[in-house]
Amino acid sequence: PAEAKAAGVETVYQDLSLCTNVDVVANFFMGREITRKVLGIPILDERAMEAVVGKALASAGTRIPSLRTNVEHLSGGQRQAIELNRFVHWGGKLVLLDEPFAALGVEQTRRGLEMIRQVANQGIGVVIITHIMQQAFQVADRIVVIRQGVVAGDVARNKTSPDAVINMITGETLAGAGPAG
């Protein structure tokens, strides 16, 4: 994981890697805190960190009432937004999202899909692992199906349909007559 992060690759897991008992700012800077020296002793620069987080979240259109709110009090969508915005802020080049909307409601999913579009529009690569065709077709440029460890299909989104992708996933032919090979 350290080599991947150093190369600009980040994974946002279905179970988010946030510390719920600390606030938004602490989660955003986890391991990368800004410090200032007071009498030669490094002290956290809370104001500077809060300003950075506020600007990053605002530029992405993410609304969180208070950056000092512990993460445990935030919605799933807000938590996911923190992870994605943190990744973008630290110069990520590729983000892998594992079932990003599995535990989110309709509105949170809509916002998450919009955030993925924004990240992709910044030139950052996004790979989404999902079984939900509607979501895949809303944001994907390409759809790759891996079945039993083997690539079963790799197609441009605009050259296929949800039914064809489901057939690749299940191994059915388009006519439903048997395995696709």
Order of helices and strands: HEHEEHHEHEHEEH
Spatial ordering of strands, largest sheet: 1-4-5
CATH topology: Rossmann fold
Average pLDDT over all residues:
87
Structural class designation: alpha/beta
Kindly provide the radius of gyration, computed on alpha-carbon positions and rounded to a whole number of angstroms: 19 Å
Helix content: 25-40%
Q: Major sheet, described briefly? A: 3 strands, parallel
Shape designation: elongated
- Per DSSP, the total helix count is 7
CATH class: Alpha Beta
Secondary structure: number of strands: 7
Oligomer: single chain
CATH architecture: 3-Layer(aba) Sandwich
Number of domains: 1
Give me the CATH superfamily: P-loop containing nucleotide triphosphate hydrolases
Distance between the ends: 35 Å
Approximately what portion of the residues adopt beta-strand conformation?
15-25%
Low-confidence stretches: none
Q: Could you characterize what this model shows?
A:
The chain has 181 residues and is of the alpha/beta class. It has a single domain (2-140), classed as Rossmann fold (3-Layer(aba) Sandwich). It is 39% helix and 19% strand. It has seven helices and seven strands. The protein has helices at 2-6, 24-29, 46-59, 76-89, 106-121, 133-139, 162-170; strands at 9-12, 35-38, 41-44, 94-98, 125-129, 142-147, 150-156. It has a three-stranded parallel sheet with strand order 1-4-5. It has a two-stranded antiparallel sheet with strand order 2-3. Strand 4, helix 5 and strand 5 form a beta-alpha-beta unit. Helix 4 packs parallel to helix 5 (106-121). The chain starts with a helix and ends in an 11-residue tail after the last helix. The model has no long low-confidence stretch (mean pLDDT 87).
